C-alpha cells in the first residue's frame, strides 16, 4: 500500500502514549475479521492513544468496554476497534463500523470502508460535535492524561439531567462509566 489509508488520521491524531504491540499469536485471528487496512494499522502501530488520547484503538483481546447485553444495537459479535476520550465506542460488527454513543444510546453505521470511517474522524464538524475536541482540551488540562482504562465524562450523566458542558466534566474508569450510562440511556 503506497499511501496509508490512515495518513490523514495520523496527521490529525498522531499515535501517542504507551502502546500495546500487535502480537500475532494473540491478535491474528481477530485481525483476519476486520478490514485489511485496519489490520495493517494494528500490525504497524499496535493499540493505544492517538492525538494525546482523544481517540484510542482498542486491543481486541482485552476485556471489552461494552457489555452487548446492555446496548440494543450490539449483537455480541462485534469487535471493539476504537473508543473516544468521552467513552463512545466503535465496533466492527456485521461487516461494518458501528459507532455507539454512550451518552445517547444511539448508534451510527458507517459501512465497511475503513478509509471512510477513519477519514470522517478528522473532519472539523465531527471533531467538534462528536469527539468534543474543545472539551477534551479542557478536561486534559484539568484532570491530566487518560490511562488506557479511563475516560472523561459528565456528572450527572446527560441522560440524568446533566449536560455535555465544561462544568460537568469528570474523569472516570471507562468500564464503570459505560456501565452506568447503559443503565440510563438504553
What secondary-structure arrangement, pairings included, does this model have?
Layout: H1 7-12, E1 15-20, H2 24-31, H3 36-45, E2 47-50, E3 55-57, E4 79-84, E5 89-93, E6 96-100, E7 107-111, H4 114-120, H5 124-129, H6 133-143, E8 150-154, E9 169-173, H7 174-185
Antiparallel strand pairs: 1-2, 2-3, 3-4, 4-5, 5-6, 6-7, 8-9
Query: pLDDT average, as an integer?
Result: 93
Strand content: 15-25%
What portion of residues is helical? Answer: 25-40%
* Largest sheet data: 7 strands, antiparallel
What overall geometry do the principal axes of the alpha carbons give?
globular
Uncertain residue segments = none
Rg over CA atoms, rounded to whole Å, is 16 Å
H/E element sequence: HEHHEEEEEEHHHEEH
What does this structure look like?
The chain has one domain (7-185). Helix content is 32%, strand content 24%. It contains seven helices and nine strands; from the N terminus they run αβααββββββαααββα. A hairpin with a 4-residue loop joins strand 2 (47-50) and strand 3. The longest helix has 12 residues, at 174-185.
Amino acid at each position: 500500500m503506497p499511501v496509508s489509508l490512515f495518513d490523514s488520521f495520523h496527521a490529525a491524531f498522531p499515535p501517542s502514549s504507551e502502546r500495546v504491540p500487535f502480537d500475532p499469536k494473540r491478535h491474528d485471528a481477530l485481525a483476519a475479521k476486520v478490514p485489511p487496512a485496519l489490520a495493517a494499522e494494528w500490525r504497524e502501530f499496535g493499540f493505544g492513544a492517538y492525538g494525546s488520547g482523544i481517540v484510542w484503538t482498542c486491543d481486541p483481546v482485552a476485556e471489552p468496554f461494552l457489555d452487548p447485553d446492555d446496548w440494543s444495537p450490539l449483537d455480541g459479535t462485534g469487535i471493539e476497534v476504537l473508543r473516544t476520550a468521552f467513552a463512545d465506542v466503535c465496533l466492527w460488527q456485521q461487516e461494518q463500523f458501528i459507532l455507539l454513543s454512550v451518552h445517547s444510546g444511539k448508534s451510527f453505521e458507517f459501512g465497511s470502508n475503513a478509509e471512510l470511517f477513519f477519514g470522517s474522524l478528522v473532519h472539523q464538524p465531527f471533531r467538534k460535535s462528536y469527539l468534543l475536541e474543545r472539551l477534551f482540551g479542557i478536561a486534559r488540562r484539568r484532570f491530566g492524561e487518560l490511562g488506557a482504562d479511563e475516560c472523561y465524562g459528565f456528572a450527572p450523566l446527560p441522560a440524568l439531567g446533566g449536560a455535555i458542558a465544561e462544568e460537568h466534566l469528570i474523569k472516570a474508569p471507562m468500564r464503570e462509566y459505560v456501565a452506568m450510562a447503559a443503565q440510563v440511556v438504553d
